[in-house]
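Marked as duplicate of an earlier ticket. Keeping the data here for the record.
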Amino acid sequence: MMGLTRRAFLGRSAGGLGAMALSRLLGGDESVVPHFAPKAKRVVYLFQSGGPSHIDLFDYKPVMRELHGQELPASVRGGQRVTGMTAGQKSFPVLAPPFEFKQHGESGAWVSELMPWTARIADKLCFLKGVHTDAINHDPAITTINTGAMQPGKASLGSWLSYGLGSENRDLPSYLVLLSQGTGKDPGQPLFSRLWGSGFLPPSHQGVQLRPGANPVLYLQNPPGVDASTRRALLDDLAKLNGRHADATGDPEARTRIDQYEMAFRMQTSVPDLTDLSTEPEEVFSLYGPDARKPGTYAANCLLARRMLERGVRMVQLFHRGWDQHLNLDRELRAQSLDTDQPSAALVSDLARLGLLEDTLVVWGGEFGRTVYSQGKLGAPGSGRDHHGRCFTVWMAGGGIKPGITHGATDDWSYNVAEGGVHVNDLNATILHQLGIDHERFTYPYLGLDQRLTGVEESRVVREILA
């Protein structure tokens, strides 16, 4: 026992899902049985980093035209903390959306002129208009919605899913990540790998980022002078050494290294096949839009995401930067929406065409919304909107979610939740539920606590939106 690491000791003593996950790492069962029958098998999370303006995209208020220019009432603000970018403003004038809205589909969903392609699939979507978070700045908010807590070090949603459900494809990681930069605000907010990290979970469950270009995964290709047979022999020898270390110390990370080396070896074949778009017909590129042939764009990543989902990847997460419209709202939000609107709608339509939408959960949203009041002088070309966590809009599709509905509502100022509030941890609880996981029972022992994605405070599954 003297050589046993703390992680190894906890791993040996873990019960429930923790023990089953450890069993998988040590060569046991390839999956953990869900708590109940799932409605979804996989997730694609279209994360819009920077805080898309719900006011200008989806949360239409006819009365806003009448409120334009009026001071936001103190009773509506309610002493809310604001960021340092507007805390010094002496006035908080209401800025009505400078964009037109129309109702679409049988559902009559209100969608901005900036999202014409999304408007076409409105009847496939479920709009959550009362989503809210506790954070007011980017990094804490992005960390919260991705890991369940503001403090770094927690495991991400994708890592939890990988840990609990395993993979449907042994030749690809169960959690893959793609990044893109929008034209709305360049550069956008920085993104850190801990957002798709495994935290306290075994490192084999962290997200694997694929990059554009000839080398999607760093250090995956054999160096000059090393062929496949040489690599295979090297891995076999490493496996023996790591196996001896694991037997001597009980350290599960040694087994994890073996697992990761083997995955990398298989990915030398599977990743080039995944990223080779030459087999896609012309109509597919037309569906995703003019940027679909440009590696690293949001459109190209949406197309790659569909190919990953087809191959059984458990979770695909796209991070698209550039939604932080503090300034130049009209120009920047138009550009950012143009980047994402057609590809997002195309992915939903493509999944439906292939019969995959039914058991694939699609989530679109950012870390928070934007303020109804103007940042900067009202009407000035350079004005925009500040961060706003009290309410914002997320849409979902497929995976057992009711299509063509709107859940929740905000007040006339799109400033506070009026009904149907959904905390970001409620959102994550709902995502887990659709994959057959009870978020309260889905835990991992660490630092003397049964850690869970939805934290220690009470969270709920949003059953009103479930089909």
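See parent ticket for discussion. Residues 329-353 form the longest helix (25 residues).
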